[in-house]
Amino acid sequence: xxxxxxxxxxxxxxxxxxxxxxxxxxxxxxxxxxxxxxxxxxxxxxxxxxxxxxxxxxxxxxxxxxxxxxxxxxxxxxxxxxxxxxxxxxxxxxxxxxxxxxxxxxxxxxxxxxxxxxxxxxxxxxxxxxxxxxxxxxxxxxxxxxxxxxxxxxxxxxxxxxxxxxxxxxxxxxxxxxxxxxxxxxxxxxxxxxxxxxxxxxxxxxxxxxxxxxxxxxxxxxxxxxxxxxxxxxxxxxxxxxxxxxxxxxxxxxxxxxxxxxxxxxxxxxxxxxxxxxxxxxxxxxxxxxxxxxxxxxxxxxxxxxxxxxxxxxxxxxxxxxxxxxxxxxxxxxxxxxxxxxxxxxxxxxxxxxxxxxxxxxxxxxxxxxxxxxxxxxxxxxxxxxxxxxxxxxxxxxxxxxxxxxxxxxxxxxxxxxxxxxxxxxxxxxxxxxxxxxxxxxxxxxxxxxxxxxxxxxxxxxxxxxxxxxxxxxxxxxxxxxxxxxxxxxxxxxxxxxxxxxxxxxxxxxxxxxxxxxxxxxxxxxxxxxxxxxxxxxxxxxxxxxxxxxxxxxxxxxxx
Length: 560
Known about the structure:
Elements: H1 4-33, H2 35-46, E1 47-52, E2 59-60, E3 66-78, H3 86-97, H4 101-108, E4 115-122, H5 123-132, E5 137-146, H6 154-157, H7 169-173, H8 175-179, E6 183-189, E7 195-202, E8 210-212, H9 216-233, E9 239-245, E10 250-257, H10 276-279, H11 289-298, E11 307-310, E12 314-316, E13 319-321, E14 330-333, H12 334-340, H13 343-364, H14 393-396, H15 407-418, E15 422-423, E16 429-432, E17 435-436, E18 443-444, H16 448-459, E19 479-488, E20 495-508, E21 515-522, H17 530-533, H18 535-548
Parallel strand pairs: 2-8
Antiparallel strand pairs: 1-6, 2-3, 3-4, 3-5, 6-7, 8-16, 9-10, 9-21, 11-14, 12-13, 15-18, 16-17, 19-20, 20-21
Helix pairs in contact: 3-4, 9-18, 11-13, 11-16, 12-16
């Protein structure tokens, strides 16, 4: 008969057996069923793979002045299970990170072993977080994109994005060059979060620097001039200006109004952030007459001295055409027609070559397709094909109506007249990673003789009796063309009597141009004519740019 001691031993043995069975069952559960999840959790808590963002390449102007740069910053991360008193931590970090404390609490309330609380925090604020010495909060190297000149060329530079494929402007179009390759750091920690080993699995490769053709000093002046236009005429849809070296196609300044703070673009309305030089289209109006005349000259249909009888009104199909200024019947040469911007005269010239040949000239000068400049969102314009012409198209298109172009297309096409007949892709990038970029070869559109003839005729626009006589600069020989075009009313489909585009585009010196300036003002108030609104802005820009660039009266070449 078992004794009391035997029964106690048996009971104790049973307890041990049951405990062992429970332990084996628990081990089986953890080892077989829960193993994958626990293994992942352990790895998350003990091994961290941290992305080390590569600094973006610096963007400078042609003289080396910094326009966009990546500054030292920190990414703020947390190991949530190591953070004690999350509410206190959230309240301490929130003002330094610039978010609501609840947003930090939500991130800390997670099973993950690693979360970002902030990315690319400025170094000064990151230093204040480091001083708090909060367990479970870590700082890793990063970079912050800043624009030292604030408002300068904001629409041109655009904004950078943390992720590939994002951003705007040059920051977007040149992202593959500027971005570089992020590094990868592997950190192994013990159960208390103390690092046991730190190893860089992949080295950080900084992005390449880009030097632009833009001149920051000239850009500042152009933006200042446009700001004056904006203050006086309050254009409803903004204004834009392009300054170019017509010989090389280099863009020396590209300005938009209203200005935008590059470090805070969201503070401006969306329409103001658009780079109007490539992202908008307009009917060019009378500035387009230069290409009408150039095509007729190249075909040998007219000469600058060819006379045309100009009636008071001209009937073409269902269109009755008038000039913008009152006059009686007269006879004028092709040169006089262009200088005085006669609508009837320009159409008479176009009729000499016919609609089909005129259409070919429109496309030869690059209209209807993007220029290829290194900017995103470039519009191709709206140019009807010859098959889409109506009977009155030849009365509209030669004077810049019935088609839409971009400011960049107009600048590139006028540069072909200025440089002796070569149409080139406008360029914005002078060097990448210190390596100079080649000048686009371009293609010949018109002969050097025809280009010289058109330049000589465009000098008359700024001469006494021309449509922009007030834009002349003493000592310099200028050439250019005014433009005033009605905008189409979207509601009626008809030309508005209240909304206009005022423009002026010209170059200097007229005989051998080194400088081209285009100004477009969209829906100015109080005045509408290109000669009154845009030409004075052209004059101010050119008056500054010529001596600034070392182009003296009578110079054959610039000093810089």
